[in-house]
Amino acid sequence: MKEQKVTCKEVMQHICESLREDLNSERCVAIKKHIDECSGCQNYIETVELTIDYYQKYNVELPDDAHDRLMKFLDLEDSD
Amino acid sequence: MEETELIALAQAGDKKALAKLVKNYEQTIYNFAFKICRNKNKAEHIMQETFYSMVKSLHQFDGNSKLSTWLYRIVSNHCLMLARKLKNRSFVSLDDDDSLYDEKYTADWNTLPYKSTENEELKAILDKAIEKLSPEYRMIFLLRDVEGLSTEETAQTTELSIAAVKSRLHRARAFLRNELNRAFQK
């Protein structure tokens, strides 16, 4: 099989398209090989993952009074 | 009680079952609305409108999708409606693919002083970056990557094709990563 050559830029685009998906095409195999050997691309993957992680962990709690206003707005009562 | 039983009871007019459904999803909907509009008052307003719509149209829910997916669709529509009212905001264009993948320098993210997302400085950076994204891109990133919906569920929720979801998602990911990278270099 002829080895596919890929650039860091192509790898970056691929990472952003297919992160967290399992892909086994010839192109993906070439990209995985590139990533194994390229610290810049490894770093890029890590920072995209971290970006997602930061936004996943940034949450807000619903305040009790906002819950109360919601139930009143909907004319519902808490059962417990 | 199983969710399907609660839904059936609520559809038949049982207010206790309806209240339980609201309680089961209010935190998720409030949190999601906040993540889209980055403002607690607006998030509360959107949450109220979302559940009002749910109460009004629950009889139309046919169980072909998860209730959560159905609610994400309602809350997403309310978020978009609110965003369209605030037309004076301008957002970054993500049409130019090339510049998105042309970052030559990566800051050392391992030595950042932020140990958790409770850090106010980090929260401000995250808010500022995502606020530059148009709500249409923001929505896709949040539904797929943050809320963990599948690509298919995200497409169903936003009424976009799978290809359009993937395209918006990868651009949003690259853009946000670049924004954080720039902020961390300062």
What gross morphology of chain B would you assign?
elongated
Order of helices and strands of chain A: HHHH
The strand count of chain B comes to: 0
Query: What's the helical proportion of residues of chain B?
Result: 55-70%
Described by strand count, sense and barrel closure, the largest sheet of chain B is: none
CATH architecture of the largest domain in chain B: Orthogonal Bundle
List descriptors.
heterodimer, A: 80 residues, mainly alpha, B: 186 residues, Rna Polymerase Sigma Factor, Chain: A, Arc Repressor Mutant, subunit A, 2 domains, 9 helices, elongated
Task: Describe this structure as you would to a colleague.
The complex is a heterodimer of chains A (about 80) and B (about 190). Chain A is about 65% helix and about 0% strand. Chain A contains four helices and no strands. The longest helix of chain A has 19 residues, at about 40-55. The termini of chain A are far apart. By secondary structure, chain B is an all-alpha fold. Chain B has two domains: about 5-85, Rna Polymerase Sigma Factor, Chain: A (Orthogonal Bundle); about 95-185, Winged helix-like DNA-binding domain superfamily/Winged helix DNA-binding domain (Arc Repressor Mutant, subunit A), CATH 1.10.10.10. The termini of chain B are far apart. The model of chain B has no long low-confidence stretch (mean pLDDT about 90). The interface between A and B is large, with 35 and 48 residues.
Structure at a glance:
Chain A has helices at 8-18, 26-37, 39-57, 64-74. By secondary structure, chain A is mainly α.
